[in-house]
From TrEMBL:
It comes from Saliterribacillus persicus. Pfam families: COX4_pro. The keyword Cell membrane applies. The chain crosses the membrane at residues 27-45, 51-73, 85-106. This is Cytochrome c oxidase subunit 4. The lineage of its organism: Bacteria, Bacillati, Bacillota, Bacilli, Bacillales. It comes from the Bacteria.
């Protein structure tokens, strides 16, 4: 049978390891978001065609929003299912509203 002090020490080591892994993911995500921002600025400064630049910038922005939600707002953790459902539901409703307005205007 394991000593109670050993169990506590192992549990603390496990939590320390998990926190270290989470911090590593956050740093990598932050670096990727900086790279995406530099790419977006570089494309705008380069003077490329707007029809080429705008969709790419929108995709990069969507990826950054995903990174923000999952890594910095901790939506990937257990217990955040209901806030995630509400957030995704709101995004879906906003998308449908914008799509409806665009169809009504251009129809």
């Amino acid at each position: 049978m394991a000593d109670k002090g050993t169990e506590v020490h192992e549990e603390l080591d496990y939590h320390k390891y998990k926190k270290k892994e989470e911090m590593k993911r956050q740093v990598i995500t932050f670096a990727l978001m900086i790279v995406f921002t530099i790419i977006a600025f570089g494309m705008v400064v380069s003077g490329l065609d707007k029809l080429f630049i705008i969709p790419i910038i929108l995709v990069l922005a969507a990826v950054q929003v995903g990174f923000q939600l999952y890594y910095f707002m901790h939506m990937s953790h257990k217990g955040h299912e209901m806030p995630a459902l509400m957030l995704y539901g709101g995004v879906f409703i906003a998308f449908l509203t914008v799509l409806t307005m665009l169809v009504l205007i251009w129809w």
